[in-house]
Amino acid sequence: MAQPHICFILHGRRSPAHWPDRLLRQFSRGYAVHIHITSSGLRAEEVACQAVTQGCDFVVAVGGDGTVHEVVNGVMRAPAAQRERVTLGILPVGTGNDFARSIGMNASVSRLYRLIQSGSARRLDLGCIETLGSQPATRYFANIASLGISSAVVDRVARMPRWLPAGLAYGLGTVLSLLTWRPARLRLTFDEGNVREESMINLCLANGRYFGGGLGVAPRARLDDGLLEIVMIRNATVAAFLRLLPLLRQARPIDDARVCYAQSRGLRISTEPPGCPLEADGERIGREPVRVSVLPGALRWLGRA
């Protein structure tokens, strides 16, 4: 009987140097192991797509939310029939690891091995973003997409020099965004027929519960319910937004008129003034207008929902 194939995709700058040897020691006796250390997000997508089309049974992202995002988008480039055969996993060694927190995974190689051996996997939803401007494109996200002050931070960090350490770039981007951000007027047209239009400092479209390094912004979100949890933080000052952050960390619904929750299968988003950036899983995606929807049970994952 042929050995199952496992492809590990490691973030080239974030994964510890000893991980390839550690993974080989743990898995090589029972599995055919393929290890790829990436040099860019595009390369991670290509490797993930190739792993699926070449018949790998498991594809594991070793990194943070950005690595998960890249692997997911690579897998989704493969034909649907081939995606049906693959199971995804994550070893979270990144900065935020918010999707891993939602799915209940840690950086234990031995636990990952037990999950693979036991076949402990389940189908989880996936978010889908379709940009509707002059250059239409489709991207997928496993965890949370957002628009507002959070996406402004990601957009600003993405434009900073690559030689800056990630922590310093994120901290500087956050401070600059807080100093300059002004609430945008958003128009949300839900698939269910209702329309909402008002100024918001942030909008989150959540498949998972956490973003921003542990902020439980979407406490009611479920990874397998076929719905997006929509979290709207209404027009507020930056100071008021900062005062809400400790409450967001508790991953419980906030009883505050400035925070509103809804659920939807999908919605279209536009802003005034136009051109507000959008991020997903901590990665810059593009700018509105966009349509965001959920793909129920799109991929099979190791871990718990």
TrEMBL record:
| Record domain DAGKc: where | 1-133
Family annotation (InterPro entries): ATP-NAD_kinase_N (IPR017438), Diacylglycerol/lipid_kinase (IPR005218), Diacylglycerol_kinase_cat_dom (IPR001206), Lipid_Phosphate_FormReg (IPR050187), NAD/diacylglycerol_kinase_sf (IPR016064), YegS/DAGK_C (IPR045540)
The domain of life for this entry's organism is: Bacteria
Which GO MF terms are attached to this record? Answer: ATP binding; kinase activity; metal ion binding
- Record's PROSITE patterns? DAGK
Report any one BP term from Gene Ontology: phospholipid biosynthetic process
Annotated Pfam families: DAGK_cat, YegS_C
For activity, the cofactor(s) needed are: Mg(2+)
Which GO cellular component term is one of those annotated?
A: plasma membrane
Keywords linked to the UniProt accession = ATP-binding, Kinase, Lipid biosynthesis, Lipid metabolism, Magnesium, Metal-binding, Nucleotide-binding, Phospholipid biosynthesis, Phospholipid metabolism, Transferase
- The residues that cross the membrane are none
Name of the protein in question: YegS/Rv2252/BmrU family lipid kinase
